[in-house]
Amino acid sequence: MTLPENPRGLVVFAHGSGSSRFSTRNIAVAQGLNARRFATLLFDLLTPQEECDRANVFNVGMLGKRLVAAVDWLQGLKPAVACLPVGLFGASTGAAAALIAAAQLPDRIAAVVSRGGRPDLAGEALPHVRAPTLLIVGGADVGVIELNEEALTWLGGPTALEIIPGATHLFPEPGAMDAVIEHASRWFGRYLQAPTSVRAAS
Question: What is the pTM of this model?
Answer without folding.
Answer: 0.91
